[in-house]
Amino acid sequence: MRVLLTGMAGFIGSHIADALAEAGHEVVGLDCLLPQAHGHIDRTDPAEIAEVAPWTTRHRLEIGDVRDPDTLDRLLPGVDAVCHQSAVVGHGVDPSDAPSYAAHNDLGTAELLAGMHRAGIGRLVLASSMVVYGEGRYECPAHGVVRPGPRQPVDLAAGRYEPPCPECGIDLTSRLVPEDAPLDPRSTYAASKLAQEHYAAAWARQTGGTVVALRYHNVYGSRMPRDTPYAGVASLFRSALQRGEPPTVLEDGRQRRDFVHVTDIATANVLALRTNRPTGTLTPLNICSGEPHTVGDLATELAHAYGGPHPEIIGGARPADVRHVVADPAQARAVLGFTARMRFAEGVAAFATDPLREPAAVA
């Protein structure tokens, strides 16, 4: 299979390229080498590109923007399927980031779908995210499964982190989130990821194409970017340890997540590209380890494996943070035959010494 892989030079995309090639597929990579991720480099100089993203030298990489129709019309003919990973990621810094998310994530997806239609390509694997759920699934002993509202600043300031039942006000119990849970994005990034799903679903209905939307949970592993406000929590903890500082954990450290290794993410993408789904549909799938842990667990295990200072619990919370979101892996297992192979302890121990992407120099 010939696969166009957008975002190939990035953290997740680079691992997918390796996995596709190992599975015998031909990879055509596309990446604009966004300065926020790769720094200000000469995009016409292969040596500079290889310095910031050495893993790209193993594959065909085209430097270009997924929002450029001419680039797409050059690369898409002859492609069998598209694996769309390129995106601006993370919570962002403040609401002024919104145009960047919309321009890259949503317009980029819309242009890609239009280009696929022109080229007659009907198979898409889309990198989505667990952030489309907002808060996870919760149960009240008296009222069953309920949907809590956003946590209030006054409660967070007082150290009341658990979402209360909207009916009776008692603390709720976190449960596994299935794919048919209500979607409630609570950050600009989350809104852009859900918009990508909606665009892709509309494209599938209009063209008879198929989309598998992989809702990644908290991905970690080698080649993560470090020392950036857009990075995931695993990278932030590792960056602190490299500076000789303790990882700082917000709230009380008991917020639950599913930390899934990037090699498992790559495997899920290969499986998704092979699977046959009904035409005209989008299939959302949780891609997770099935092994929930707290953020405090991650910080403690990583600090121990690295040999650095013990984490510090500092309280507080970012405005877009949710308390618990852990996934039900059953549907990905049923549809793709996917089960994560990397266990938490093994993955975190490896991550303590994994090579990370150097900070992007954008000044």
What does this structure look like?
35% of the residues lie in helices and 19% in strands. It has 12 helices and 17 strands. A 7-stranded parallel beta sheet has the order 3-2-1-4-5-9-14, with helices on both faces. The chain has a 4-stranded mixed beta sheet with strand order 7-6-8-17, with no helix packed on it. Helix 5 (98-119) links the parallel strand 4 (81-84) and strand 5 (123-129). The longest helix is centred in the first third of the chain and has 22 residues, at 98-119. The relative contact order is 0.15. The mean pLDDT is 92.
Write the layout of secondary structure elements.
Layout lengths: L1 E5 L4 H12 L3 E6 L3 H4 L7 H7 L7 E4 L5 H7 L5 E4 L13 H22 L3 E7 L7 E4 L3 E3 L6 H5 L15 E5 L10 H20 L2 E7 L1 E3 L12 H10 L5 E2 L6 E2 L1 E3 H13 L6 E7 L5 E2 H12 L5 E2 L12 E2 L2 H7 L7 H8 L12
Parallel strand pairs: 1-2, 1-4, 2-3, 4-5, 5-9, 8-17, 9-14, 10-13, 11-16
Antiparallel strand pairs: 6-7, 6-8, 12-15
Helix pairs in contact: 1-9, 5-7, 8-10, 10-12
Short description:
This protein is α/β, with parallel strands linked by helices. The chain is 35% helix and 19% strand. The protein has a seven-stranded parallel beta sheet with strand order 3-2-1-4-5-9-14, with helices on both faces. It has a four-stranded mixed beta sheet with strand order 7-6-8-17, with no helix packed on it.
